[in-house]
Amino acid sequence: MPLALLALAIGAFGIGTTEFVTAGLLPEIADEFGVSIPTAGLLTTGYALGVVVGAPVLAILGGRIPRKAMLMGLMGLFVVGNALSAAAPVFSLMLAGRIVASLAHGAFFGIGSIVAAGLVAPQKKAGAIAMMFTGLTTSTVVGVPMGTLVGQNVGWRVTFLIIAGLGVLAVLGIAALVPPQPRPERTRLSGETAAFRNPQVLLAMAMTVLGFGGVFTMSTYLAPMMTDVAGYAPSSVTWLLVLFGLGMLVGNLIGGRYADRALMPMLFTALGGLAVLLALLPLTAHDKTAAAVTIPLIGAFGFATVPPLQKRVLDQTADAPTLASAVNIGAFNLGNAIAAWLGGLVISAGFGYTAPNWVGAAMAASALLLALLSAALERRTTAPSAGRVVAGGSPAAAEREAAPATR
């Protein structure tokens, strides 16, 4: 894999750390600002909604900026947002800092996915995207647990200052390692938005919202669930986050590997397993050992969906991928926002800290149904061309011949 993927992974590491670290620090942040746990959960919801808004807006505004320069600028915005969170004297400013940092998230991963895919041969695109997202999943193994440990023992503000420093390191890494990128070809906005008339693109994004949202119904309220229900000490949350992150790391790599071979079967397996595990967690959460087994499995099955879903969007929007790629990253975070909000609702309604997992199971199951529908529509669309004789008779030629019918 090209060394430039390391630079993208550095940026992903910083973004992943700030996105997930609030799951381990929610009680500390809530205590300092004097707000409830569901209110503190708005830090996750606000961040996710910022990604949803920032992804398409910054992708459009930066459409004529060379992609390397755009990636560096986005990480600069990320640094400003995390510094504001670290210095916030009141909860509203902390939330504002989260939103500022989140604006860079979607466009960074969307543009980064395009750059990563363009660095390798076509048959290795999902693997390259997975390598970039390895920075995100590695952050859950290293960055988030260490950030939680620092936040619990030194102060959560120090954690966000360190994250801002990671953003500075990412800017330097991109400047040094990512090769010069050509200025994107001028594409009319109508050309970029045309992708959203493709049912397969819309289905993929809906799967992203529902499937990945299911993961966040669990992770957003992981700390109070494990301390109040499973009986873990607050210091043990760090190690549970390490397990969760290891699961995400493994799932991401497996998803990238097999999405290049059998994309839809990979999605069926990941979404089905995720739905089952989320449904089981309200039961296993009452036992420390069972909970410690279930949590990393949820991370693995949840993140196994990321490379195939991102690749599917890129495959369906090859002529104008920038906006669609960024919007799909926003879709991941729209799922996060919906999940955190719904989880807070069921907790506030008195159903307890395990109840959000039932919501997550329903979301993942709905995503699986959409994946089955997508596969059925694709078979129906490509069936008329399957019997054509293509010059040369190669499977690759037949695929190229059939491709326009699927876009």
UniProtKB/TrEMBL annotation:
CDD domains: MFS_NepI_like
Positions of region (Disordered): 387-407
InterPro entries linked: MFS (IPR011701), MFS_dom (IPR020846), MFS_Efflux_Transporters (IPR050189), MFS_trans_sf (IPR036259)
Keywords on record: Cell membrane, Membrane, Transmembrane, Transmembrane helix
Topology of this chain in the membrane: Multi-pass membrane protein
TM annotation in the entry: 42-62, 74-96, 102-121, 128-146, 158-180, 201-223, 229-250, 262-283, 289-309, 330-352, 358-377
Composition skew (Basic and acidic residues), residue ranges: 398-407
Cellular component, GO, one term: plasma membrane
Gene Ontology molecular function: transmembrane transporter activity
Protein's cellular compartments: Cell membrane
Domain of life: Bacteria
Residue span, Major facilitator superfamily (MFS) profile domain: 4-382
PANTHER family: CHLORAMPHENICOL EFFLUX PUMP RV0191, PURINE EFFLUX PUMP PBUE
Protein name: MFS transporter
